[in-house]
Structures are given as structure tokens and as C-alpha cells.
Design a protein that fits this description.
Blueprint lengths: L4 E10 L6 E11 L4 E5 L6 H8 L7 E6 L2 E2 L5 H10 E4 L13 H11 L6 H14 L5 H5 L8 H12 L6 E5 L7 H18 L2 E6 L2 H8 L4 E6 L2 E7 H6 L4 H8 L6 H6 L31
Parallel strand pairs: 3-8, 3-9, 6-7, 7-8
Antiparallel strand pairs: 1-2, 1-4, 4-5, 9-10
Helix pairs in contact: 3-4, 4-6
């Protein structure tokens, strides 16, 4: 089967000369239609940069990004337009990603009308109502009339998801989509995203620094990809990565996840790293970049 989205030996650098940093280094990820792939790692490891390249928002410095087997940089105008409709992104900050001067109605109906997904304003409004119902915002007619500042963080993020759905995408990059939402609301949003996958057959690249969230979202059918300092250090089915992590970095991430069961928490041993400091991207360690912190290094 041809992957829906594939990153082949993708590298992204910023700056130049002695100030050049490699944010993403020779990354390979193939995402099949209908799959949930969770990209996990500490802040600054290159997760969001990888997601932005997959969504076509950021060019690669080397390597290629393919959609349905076709290099996106070699697409003609019509093909690239279809790709941009099919691939959408939900950003981390629902307070910054929504235009504060626009009502929700305008946010949802404008792309529908501009790209021909709705022929009339009435049809666009009707579709906007449907999208709000899909993401669980009710009553939808009242939400359509509101501005972002009148909504909670969780409601804003649901609006962001509804906006991403306007073009009927087949692939959504969810970049830390619940990290700025109240803890009590995270599960409800993840449940909503899981329902979208099942009902609309949407494929997800779910980016998070929280391995517990990745486990919850991708446990049944998903895959986890672990990234450290721009490189992939481990990947596999979620149940295997969680149940039998092979890389010391993955093991350290798992040991840092809080346990709800007090009996397990008492016996759980945290992995002590050689150093808590993450190396600078300006002077990366040679060989395995984790060796400066690895508890097994000799």
C-alpha cells in the first residue's frame, strides 16, 4: 500500500555557518491511510518542525515529502492545491491560532466559499453548523455568532478542529493539540479526535511531549515514533513501545510518566539520567546523541 504521507530522509536546518542548527536530521516516517502516528519527544526535539514539513508549511533542507507517492515539490498547481486541501494542521495554541476579530461563522464559512466547497453563503452556514456539531460544540447556531474571546480554551480548540475539517481532509497534523487545554478536558478532545478517525477516516500525525497522551490516543491501532534532538531513536506499534521500550531514552520517558495506581507508584523506579541537561543543537554529541545522558553509557 502506498503511504498517504511519507517523509524520506528529511532534514531541516536553520541559520548558517557556525550558527547553523539541524532541527530535523535524516528522518524517515511513512504514514498509512487511516493510521494514527504519535510523534513523541521533549520540547525542542524537532517534532513541530517535522509536522510542519509534513503539512507543507515548511520546506525541507534535504530529502522529500510525498503525498500518495508523489513528491510535493514536483506537483503542478492543481495537484498541490488538492494536497493542501487534503492535509490540514491543528496548532498548539487555541488562543493564538484563531483570529480574535472574526466570529466563528466567518472562520468556517470563508474557506468553504473561497475554495468552492459551498456554492452559497446559506450552504456554507449550514456546513459550518454541521462541523460544529461534529466536534461537539452546541448549540451550534449560538457558537457561530461568538468571537474567540467568548469561548473557553477547550471550545477554541474544537473550533480549530472544525476549521481544519472544512476541506474534508484525509490527513491532520495535530501539533500539541491538547497541551494548552485544561487537563480535565484533554480526554474529551482526544475522544473526539478518535471518533473523527473512525467516522471520517481521517489519518493523524499526533505530536506531543506527553507519552501518556500518546499511549491513550494510539493504544488500539496506532504507532509511536520517539524523537530526540532531531533524530528518530525508536518507533513501533504503541503496545510494543509502551510494553517493551528498547531505547534508553524511551525507557526514561516512560519512567517519568506519573502512575495513577498508588501501589504501582510505590514500586516504580525512576531512571536516573547521567545529566538532566539537553545538549545544544549548536554542538551536538558525536555518535548516539543520547550518550551524554544515557544511564548505560560506559
Amino acid at each position: 500500500m502506498t503511504p498517504l504521507i511519507e517523509l524520506k530522509n528529511v532534514t531541516r536546518t536553520f541559520g548558517g555557518g557556525r550558527d547553523q542548527i539541524t532541527a530535523v536530521d535524516s528522518v524517515d516516517i511513512a504514514i498509512e491511510p487511516g493510521e494514527i502516528v504519535c510523534l513523541v519527544g521533549e520540547s525542542g526535539c524537532g517534532k513541530s518542525t517535522t509536522g510542519s514539513m509534513a503539512a507543507g508549511l515548511l520546506a525541507t533542507s534535504d530529502g522529500e515529502v510525498s503525498y500518495m507517492g508523489q513528491n510535493i515539490t514536483k506537483m503542478n498547481k492543481s495537484e498541490y492545491k488538492k494536497y493542501r486541501h487534503a492535509v490540514q494542521i491543528v496548532h498548539q495554541d487555541p488562543y493564538a491560532s484563531l483570529n480574535p476579530t472574526q466570529p466563528i461563522e466567518q472562520m468556517l464559512t470563508t474557506p468553504l466559499l473561497r475554495h468552492g466547497a459551498a456554492k452559497t453563503r446559506a450552504a456554507a452556514y449550514k456546513r459550518g453548523i454541521e462541523l460544529l456539531e461534529i466536534v461537539g460544540l452546541t448549540p451550534p447556531d449560538e457558537v457561530m455568532a461568538k468571537f474567540p474571546h467568548q469561548l473557553s480554551g477547550g471550545q477554541r480548540q474544537r473550533v480549530s478542529v472544525a476549521r481544519a475539517l472544512t476541506m474534508n481532509p484525509s490527513f491532520i497534523v495535530a501539533d500539541e493539540a491538547v497541551s494548552m487545554v485544561d487537563v480535565s478536558l484533554r480526554v474529551s478532545i482526544l475522544t473526539m479526535l478518535s471518533r473523527l478517525k473512525a467516522e471520517l477516516e481521517v489519518t493523524f500525525l499526533f505530536i506531543t511531549h506527553d507519552l501518556a497522551l500518546a499511549k491513550y490516543f494510539s493504544w488500539h491501532e496506532g504507532r509511536i515514533v520517539v524523537m530526540y534532538l532531531g533524530r528518530i531513536v525508536e518507533e513501533g506499534p504503541t503496545k510494543r513501545v509502551i510494553g517493551n521500550p528498547r531505547h534508553p531514552y524511551t525507557q526514561a520517558l516512560l519512567s517519568a510518566v506519573p502512575e495513577a495506581d498508588p501501589n504501582i507508584a510505590r514500586t516504580k523506579k525512576a531512571i536516573e539520567l547521567r545529566s538532566a541537561d539537553i545538549p545544544s543543537l549548536l554542538s551536538l554529541p558525536t555518535g548516539c546523541t543520547f550518550h551524554t545522558r544515557c544511564p548505560h553509557f560506559v
